[in-house]
Design brief:
The protein is α+β, with helices and mostly antiparallel strands. 40% of the residues lie in helices and 14% in strands.
Length: 217
């Protein structure tokens, strides 16, 4: 079995999606790119999260061709691979249809930067890209276009959901969790009144501190 450790990691991280209310039934997926071989480990299509095992993960090349695995890979595989080919720093991807973030996506709105936590993690608004059908590279192309030159590791897809990137699969899943948390805060706050975005100079300061000072170094 190819890439057993990466399969184990990707399988384990899939449990975080239903745990954090980011998916329903079999929707959503996570992938990771092995830095040594460039091969991609991704969720098989249509399996329930409780049924996933490391052995059921599918290994593909960067064109989405199955290299190892008995099951068909996710229907989003072509888009995952497109993102990896065009964003060399990405080694993990997560895709969800989380409720509050997708609510912004279905009205074609970015999520404004209205919390210090969002400034820390995203360095600004979470952009909303356009619409594309599932199955090809088109969604991946929209994600790459939306994130080019942005600090944000997350993009919304109109009428669809969320894609997040990271230096690892775990980082991508964290970004997906934080996307939904901040989307829920922004949506709830809108019921109370007008949102108050954080000034860009303060966003810049918060982002710099979080990226260089926060946590254990």
């Amino acid at each position: 079995m190819l890439l057993p450790q990466l399969r184990e990691e990707v399988c384990r991280l899939h449990a975080e999606l239903p745990k954090n209310d980011l998916v329903a039934w079999t929707s959503g997926n996570i992938s990771a790119r092995d830095p040594a071989t460039g091969l991609v480990v991704i969720k098989p299509s249509g399996l329930r999260f409780d049924d996933l095992t490391p052995a059921s993960m599918v290994v593909t090349d960067l064109r989405g061709r199955v290299i190892d695995g008995d099951l068909a890979p996710s229907s989003d595989t072509a888009s995952h691979c497109y993102i990896y080919r065009h964003m060399p720093g990405a080694h993990g991807l997560a895709h969800t249809h989380s409720r509050y973030a997708t609510a912004f996506a279905v009205v074609g709105q970015s999520i404004p930067c209205v919390t210090t936590a969002m400034a820390d993690e995203f360095g600004g608004a979470i952009p909303c890209a356009g619409f594309a059908l599932i199955g090809g590279e088109e969604i991946g192309a929209l994600v790459v276009e939306a994130l080019r030159g942005q600090r944000s590791p997350a993009a919304l897809l109109r009428n669809h959901g969320v894609f997040t990137i990271g230096a690892s699969a775990e980082a991508a899943v964290k970004a997906a969790v934080m996307t939904e948390d901040n989307a829920a805060i922004a949506w709830t706050a809108r019921q109370l009144g007008e949102l108050i975005p954080i000034a860009q100079e303060d966003v810049d300061s918060l982002y710099e501190r979080y990226q260089t000072v926060y946590g254990q170094r």
